[in-house]
Amino acid sequence: MSPVRSILLILSFVLCMYGCASAPYTGRSQLILISEDQERSLGFSAYQSLVKKEKVVRGTAASEMLERVGSRIAAAADRPDYDWEFVLIENDQVANAFALPGGKVFVYTGILEYTKNEAGLATVVGHEIAHVLARHGAERMSIGLLSQIGETALVAAVNSQSPTAVRAFQSAYGIAANIGVILPYSRQQEYEADRIGLILMAKAGYDPHAALDFWERMSRSAQGPKPPPFLSTHPTDEARIKKIQGLLPEALSYYSR
Ligand SMILES: [Zn+2]
Description:
Elements: H1 3-19, E1 20-22, E2 29-31, H2 36-53, E3 56-57, H3 61-77, E4 85-89, E5 97-100, E6 104-108, H4 112-115, H5 118-133, H6 136-148, H7 151-159, H8 163-178, H9 187-203, H10 209-222, H11 230-233, H12 238-252
Parallel strand pairs: 4-6
Antiparallel strand pairs: 1-2, 3-4, 5-6
Helix pairs in contact: 2-8, 3-5, 5-9, 5-10, 6-8, 7-8, 9-12, 10-12
Bound molecules: zinc ion.
């Protein structure tokens, strides 16, 4: 075995000691080098600056619907250790939604035109919560770090002891958190979020067929003059809709109402 190969083997062993995780429901193994605690505190800082910057809607029929849908999906997610919160942002020009690690979910009023009803909103919330449960942000960041930094820095980062390594994590996450809205997840992560999201909405008592209606409305708007921003991170075409159809039987096995 070449020295490079043995170093890689040892390295992947060390990384697995610190960084191997597996996604809920799908069991896909993931390389994640950031701890859940670190991820949550970074998510919380991003949350604090967002609620200061944006116009939060409270006490309307729409914000109450979001809270209702959110708490049902959060209950299905079965992570009481997360600090769930569902924030509606007043901006009809922005059809978008995203979630931060730790359980803060943001929905812009502009997307309500596409979600149409409670089950449609459950599709979006379920999908975003799925990204959080599967720690897709931390995974994306870990893969990014792995390709950017050298072996020495990598080991330091894995140990997370030196302030330099911690800062590297934070700045990498900061970038990911700020442009998280426009930086797309990988296709594999999107597919996984669709799969887990459908299961969560079904467990929460929403018919997962409603997801098809939502994605079809999204797909139609892609042909319009002003495609919603949600589409830049969630490209919706025939292939995606077909895949969602293929995921329905599994989701329906969780649907009891
Ligand atoms: Zn997504």
